[in-house]
Design goal:
It is built from six helices and eight strands. The protein has 185 residues and is of the alpha+beta class. The protein has one domain: Jelly Rolls (Sandwich), CATH 2.60.120.10. Strand 4 and strand 5 form a beta hairpin. Helix 5 packs antiparallel against helix 6. The protein is globular.
């Protein structure tokens, strides 16, 4: 597990955590191994857990209106997935599929909720780190849109390029269909 800890410590999600915070979360989570083709998260289905790739690679896929799955991102060691569904208590906005054998650190939302309920600062710092990851994605998506609109990346010759941006935004910024009221159903 020493290599796993090194990957966990280097991930953007854990940069704001102390060693004690990380030790606590590691004690509450689990390491999972998945074969190539395994669905780590499934678009549209509840997934009350956060995943962090320790080894291997996974693909983030989003189904378009035409029913075809489109590759949104490739995730490698240190990358996190499921953070939107984890924080907002919603269904997964995209599928995450192992492209080869993959090892993942997994943390269930209910365990983090229990830490929050008892006032543990590690849970608050984790939530803040996840919010920072999402804010970074929003900033990158905004820059990409502005760049495309300004023609900095060449002329947008088809609606497909804009649909690609829309898919990225849906994955990175997916919101629940109804506004979050602060209460869980």
């Amino acid at each position: 597990m020493p290599d796993d800890l090194a990957v966990l410590r280097a991930s953007p999600v854990t940069l704001g955590l102390s060693d004690d915070d990380l030790d606590l979360l590691v004690s509450r989570g689990r390491v999972e191994s998945w074969p190539a083709g395994a669905h780590l998260a499934e678009e549209g289905l509840e997934s009350p857990r956060l995943g962090l790739i320790l080894a291997g690679e996974a693909h983030v896929l989003k189904r378009g209106v035409d029913g075809v799955e489109h590759l949104l991102a490739r995730l490698g060691p240190g990358a996190v997935y499921g953070e939107l569904a984890f924080l907002a208590d919603t269904a997964s906005s995209a599928s995450v599929v192992a492209s080869g054998p993959v090892r993942v650190f997994s943390l269930d939302r209910l365990l983090v909720d229990a830490l929050i309920a008892r006032g543990d600062p590690a849970a608050a710092r984790l939530s803040l780190s996840l919010a920072r990851v999402l804010a970074g994605r929003l900033a990158r998506a905004n820059r990409r849109i502005v760049s495309l609109l300004a023609g900095d990346e060449g002329t947008v010759e088809s609606i497909e390029a804009l649909q690609d941006i829309q898919r990225h935004l849906q994955w990175e910024l997916a919101e629940p269909e109804t506004p979050w009221s602060g209460e869980r159903s």
